[in-house]
Amino acid sequence: MTPADGSASGESVPSQDRRIHEWAVSNRERVETYLLGLVETETPTETPETFDPFFERLAEDFEAVGLRTERVPGEETGGHLEAYSPGSSDGPIQLVLGHADTVWPLGTVEENPPEVRDDVLEGPGSLDMKGGLTQVVFALRALEACSLEPGLPVHVLVSSDEEVGSPESKPRIVDLAKRADRVFVLEPASGPEGKIKTARKAVGHFTVTIEGKAAHAGLEPEEGASATEELGTVIHRLHGLTDVDSGVTVNVGEVEAGLRSNVVAPEARAEVDVRAPTETAADAVAERIRSLEATTPGTELRIDGGFGRPPMERTPGNRLLWERVRAVGRRLDLELKGTRSGGASDGNDASQHAPTIDGFGAVGDGAHQTFEYVRLDKLVDRIALLAACLCTGPLETRGDSEA
User: Fold this and answer.
1) In CATH, 202-309 is 3.30.70.360
2) Lesser CB count within 10 Å: N end or C end of the chain?
């Protein structure tokens, strides 16, 4: 195995990284063709059967570069695919996380076919996140073509349920993260600038249910207790919990109330999205939400739900991994910048157990939007970046002297 600094072959780390990048650049057309094929193969989260041919193709590509694969079926989802270095069942690994599911229903590709214009590939699911899947396949191909070994055994997990919160894949992701020296999450980079996501907010979902008492709005309104009236005051109090400066946001995004206009509303409901930058902030805002009490006479209030994704905070391990990634980037003439994301991913869960870097995937814009696209030149750079990072040694031993 070639050590992380390439010294056994007499090759310097920068020289090794340049070879990786040159290979990626020379395979730019193959990258484009491959990504186009993945985008044309539709894989909506809610259509599990679509993942069979998609995972079969990925498995063949991973096996072609020497990894072993295992397809794990789902109960209500398309399951997930794992690809891993032979003989890596014990000991530390470097974990690469991706997902194959998209938010786009079947038929979207026919209605909005992907196309390439100049250096941009536009199409549903291209950025989130079939660009990231293309990245890991070609990063592994680059290592094979350059006769380089990863610094630690590689373990790739590609899920089919990330867009709905990873209900079935999360336990396995957590198990693997507990073994991992580091985790690379191939979610799209942040914005067209391609910023790496070094932190993510915790994400919570709460349901507020209010019970009142029905009455005729014209004949005897005093006999009723309006759940709608109470909901109005609750919405005001919930939005008052938002503190943009601290990073805490509370949004009532969906409401349902009443029976008809001439009936005092006997029931009302609100769905609430909550984001918080730290576990402490998440605990504090959750407590304040749960402490809400009804103020409209005759009504009762119930709060259900909580935080489903913990925050990905800038822990010492995460900062150490980020500094290493930046050092590798500099060797590739990439000046990487980091940011905090308000969204959540599998990186939120993985980061509770291992140093994690997120937004490591494709650069583009329009995720979940009709103009979704990937910058192909930047994708080539990200392929080289991932390949070079995979070559570095364990974090705790600081295997690459520059990082």
Assistant:
1) yes
2) N
Nearest to 387 by CA among 209, 177, 140: 140
Averaged pLDDT in 10-residue chunks for the chain of 403 residues: 42 87 98 98 97 98 98 97 90 96 97 94 97 98 97 97 96 97 98 95 97 96 96 97 96 96 97 97 98 97 96 96 97 96 95 97 96 97 98 71 38
pTM of whole model > 0.85?
yes
Number of H helices, E strands in the chain: 11, 16
Rounded to whole angstroms, how far apart are CA atoms 393 and 400? 6
Q: Which residues contact 18 (CB under 8 A, 6 or more apart)?
A: 332
Amino acid at the residue 286? A
Residue type, 121: L
* Ranges of each domain in the chain: 7-200+311-397, 202-309
Q: Report d(CA 338, CA 336) in Å as an integer.
A: 7
Looking at domain 7-200+311-397, does it have CATH number 3.40.630.10? yes
Scan for tokens 């503190």, then name that residue: 243
Longest dimension (CA), the chain: 92
Enclosing H/E stretch for 206: strand 202-211
